[in-house]
User: Fold this.
Amino acid sequence: MRYIGFIIPTLLILLNFMISPAFSQEEIFYMGNEYGINARAMGMGNTRICTAEDFSAAFSNPAALGMVRRMELQGSFSHLKIQDQALFLGKATTDSKNSTKLNTLGFVFPVPTYRGSLVFSIGFARLRDYESSLKMQAFNPQHSSYRPILDEIYPDIYTYYDSTLQDYVDYFIDTTIDDSVFQKETLISSGGLKAWTVSGALEVQKDIFLGASINVWSGSEEHTLTFVEEDQNEYYQAADTSITEDGIVIYDYNDFKSLESMQKINSEFNAINLKIGLLYRMNQFMKLGLTVESPKTFTIKEKWEDESTVNFDDGSYAEPSPNPYSGESEYKIQEPYIFGFGASASLLNFTLAGDVELVDWSQAKFLTDSPIYGETKDRVNTRIKENFTTVTNVHLGGEFSIPFLNTKIRAGYANRPSIFKDARDDEHKKYLSLGASLLLDKQMMLDFGWSHGWWTDYSFDSLTNVEAKEQKEVNRLLATCSIRF
Assistant:
């Protein structure tokens, strides 16, 4: 069995894995998706700054809590289905993943006042999902990970004790294997980011509400990458050979059957931030809203693990010792300010609403050096400023109340552009949504929302050395139950 030097390839594979697009340090700000926490808002294109008049206002616009006049207990469940079709070297592979989670649980309690309003709330919400799944496989005529691994292990001459010669010999490792292999890659991500919040709102002047929320963020994410490379066409069955030039032994690894590698990265996130909101009820028909969310400074603790095996045609194999190889790191990143503007208008049985959210992602930054060796915070932050841009997220929605049925129906649209300056048009995330609600006994409200999203991701993986095109579709069902006392 051949075990020479396979601790180093393990680290190399892990490094390649971490700097692929799924683990690019710049993209960590963009990982995950935000779908909304309230079925009414999601059914209206996730408009929420002026339409949230329940517990969800604590996260949308805390000032809107001032509109709540009765105690409220609210909870919601979500079901998420993600479908990914990856086009890799002309071959399409489809994969999907389902997730059902408790989405929110919160309590709102107004304080009796002689004039105006004073309202508090407490609870939690799941605000960001990290659920995704990717599969791709094809014959790669252009690249093999086998040779780069050996080149990194033995870039120079090294001295090795030859038990046959019973002497130290200068060795140089080489191989002719650099293409024409079958490659298969599976990437699964799971987890999410939630926040506990304590919020309050008051009517500072007639029809002007001011509110604030203190959010304590926590969450986790687990990435698992499985990579397989095989000599399915049996091109590389030659026996390993060696020659001597100028006293140096050149050893050719030309016998190859398969390479199997599994890497895992588990991340834990923690942060605290503040969100303030303003709501102005112009008249009985129109409302205007403004929100400002302070930067979130995340402390991220990561544990990684890699397990790899190389199999040869003669039945022998090589693996790192110890196997798996593992490590951990800790670093801090900061997301930028988020500014929100909203308006809503109600006339007869119709309500129309729109939100605009501004985020300058070029102001995102690392507060400590990144966990990748040699990637200082200054180098990463410079790339962030060069590659990221300001985005304007747009949400539009409408609601119609059906007379005499205590029922409302909703529809909406949302557009969330990519944070990268050079993004292609199909990389911008778009969502269509529908929703409905039913009032029971004047105390219980049931809301249902459905959202369909689609976009395209382009990724370059150093293991395959080929750009992959991923067409993503997301369907999400959200049910919210609100009980007022």
Notes: The CA atoms of residues 389 and 401 lie 40 Å apart.
